[in-house]
Structures are given as structure tokens and as C-alpha cells.
Amino acid sequence: xxxxxxxxxxxxxxxxxxxxxxxxxxxxxxxxxxxxxxxxxxxxxxxxxxxxxxxxxxxxxxxxxxxxxxxxxxxxxxxxxxxxxxxxxxxxxxxxxxxxxxxxxxxxxxxxxxxxxxxxxxxxxxxxxxxxxxxxxxxxxxxxxxxxxxxxxxxxxxxxxxxxxxxxxxxxxxxxxxxxxxxxxxxxxxxxxxxxxxxxxxxxxxxxxxxxxxxxxxxxxxxxxxxxxxxxxxxxx
Length: 237
What we know:
The chain is of the alpha+beta class. The chain has helices at 10-17, 70-86, 104-113, 121-130, 132-136, 144-148, 155-165, 168-173, 179-186, 189-204, 226-236, and strands at residues 4-5, 42-44, 50-52, 59-65, 93-99, 209-210, 212-215, 218-219. A hairpin with a 2-residue loop joins strand 7 and strand 8. The chain starts with a strand and ends with a helix.
């Protein structure tokens, strides 16, 4: 099996709706850097997703990913450098990341990668993907009492318990975030709703596994790894 099936966790939807309302933040984007350095160009859409590269690229690739999907981490390790070195610099391909929430751990990581400066999203995203085997490897060592904290109580406290158990605060500290700053993002109700909506939107398009991909808005069938995705990109160039 080369990909992970997912379904939107019902408790996650109910929990996100129970959060205190917070004013939505306007979409932000980085200014286009000089000399067309598309590897440093990040734009944020109104749905909260982030795109790396030329916003007007001929080929607009969307990655539907889950942070707890081992196949997503494998794809990232295999494809990220190829995309950044061979496709993005010419401005003909852009890469958009859409979050798929399969469980509360995904929500916790997604909330942290979306925390703070939009221009640094991909730096945070890459850090969590690259280190997935280390932090997710802690899972089997948790007690039932620990994991029970992830699904009881209010949502911010659930996410903070997960962040503490997996040492996510240490990862965020590498990017200059204090625990107080990270906790503020974990308690952002509007962000949780945006992230949940991304999963709902993907499901409405027929995305039911991770990683999955779309090119120019068209979801690709039975394409879940680089060796089958690359020819699809090349055919559109």
C-alpha cells in the first residue's frame, strides 16, 4: 500500500465548532522577490493554503498531505528537492499544500506550521515532515492516560497536551517561538476552522487518501508517489 486512506474525524469537527469565536485573519502574501526567485515566493490563499513558487505558473500542483502519514513524509523527502531544483526556479510550476486532518495529531502539527509569519510556512512544514519518524516514533511509548488527554476537555488543551507529549514545543523553539506563542496558535479557533475546512474541501473533490495530488485543480487518479506524479507534471509543461 502506497498511501493512507483518511476520513474526517467527527470528534474533530465537533470540537472545532465548540471553540470560542476568533476574528479571521486576512490572507497574506510575500512580495515577489527580485530576479524571480520563485523558491522564496510564498502566497497564502483565502482558504489558508500556502503556495510556493510563481502564483501564475502554467502548472499549479496541489499536494494533499497529512503530517502523520508516513507515505507523505516519504514523498516529501523524495520530491521536495526535485521540485525546488528542477521545476520551481523556471516559474512554470508552483506547489500548493492543502492540509488533510486524519486525527488530532495532524491538527496539532498543522496549527503549528500555520503559526506566525506566512513567508516561513514552508520552513516549518519541511521541519515537521523531515522529522516525522522521530516524533511520531514516540507514539508507542505513550500511556492510555496520556492519549486520553488528546480527546477530552477543550480543544486548545487537547492540542497543547499533544504538543507537549511529542515535544513539538522544542521544534517550534528552533524557529524562535516561545511556549506562550505556540500555545496562542494552538488556541486559535479561526485557524482550526480553516484547517478543518481544507480537509472538507478536499473530501468534496474526491480526495480520500494521502498523499494525493491535483494539477490545475484536477485531482489525479491513482497518483500517490513521485514516480507517477512527475510524468503528469512533465506532460503539462
